[in-house]
Amino acid sequence: MTRFVDLQPELTEVASGLRFPEGPVAMPDGSVVLVEMFGPRLTRVLPDGTTETIADIPGGPNGAAIGPDGAVYLCNNGGAFRPAELGDLLLPGGFDASAHIGGRVQRVDLDSGEVTDLYTECDGRPLRAPNDLVMDGHGGFYFTDHGIRDHGTRTSDLTAIYYALADGSHIHEVVFPTEAPNGIGLSPDGSMLYWAETMTGRVFQRAVVTPGELAPAVPLDPSAVLCGLAGQQYLDSLAVDGDGWVCVATIFNGGVTAISPDGEVVEHHATGDIITTNICFGGDDLRTAYITLSSTGRLVSTPWPRTGLRLAHT
């Protein structure tokens, strides 16, 4: 059995003062494009730490990815969370139905800032709170719908994993039901889809048969779960590195947990922010991890022990 390592990496602050940053994308020019969920906007962070607003995004922008046409595709939860302050921390608060504009997947032109709604429903069912997405390199992408937990009505959504084409022409469910799915990613060869459920603390996996088609679920199959974390560790977004390790941002313990392809929890990279939400890889050699520390409004970087995975269209 591989020995677990609790790491205290050296973090370099790239930018601060962000309004709950998520969905970082490392760009070829050295900048990082990310969303600010409580901005709400799409922002470019330049290498010197200065920021530029690419587009205002009403609702609640979450995950982001570069599409086949070079535009940014993003999941918008529609305002599923209201901002809540706890001392110096900015946290995602409870649901406010009056402020929710409906979930959607959007395309943002990086040059003009034009925002286009691509998908707001699937088979007549409204999207509730799309959270994160991953491009598959075949003209489409998988995305999670985190759903809404409404304390006022004591209800919680069962939601799905979807596959959609980037040209806006088709969307369908590939997994149902799921419980608050969040981060999503593909193995280096594209043969396995991974997604994290926030409150259950589990990373699930399903084989990809063809683009947009997953292997059928097998009842009571233990291999459906790659890994489950012990204790109260919520899971947020994830990235897969070049060796196939699933690197998932963990909440409460504040860091990134690296899970080997065979499901062993090998490393925890502590960040000091209890709501660490996202990781992506950049730099010329893809050995730099960019991590969003959302409750303290920072983007940081740190050397990564393995080479990152170059995502489709980047």
UniProtKB/TrEMBL annotation:
Residues 20-294 form the SMP-30/Gluconolactonase/LRE-like region domain. The active site is at D236 (proton donor/acceptor). Binds 1 divalent metal cation per subunit. Its cofactor is Zn(2+). A divalent metal cation binds at N182, D236. The keyword Iron does not apply. The keyword Metal-binding applies. Substrate binds at N131. Keywords: Metal-binding, Zinc. It comes from the Bacteria. InterPro entries: 6-blade_b-propeller_TolB-like, SGL, SMP-30, SMP-30/CGR1_Lactonase. One of its GO terms (molecular function) is metal ion binding. PANTHER family: BLR2277 PROTEIN, LIPOPROTEIN-RELATED. This is Gluconolactonase.
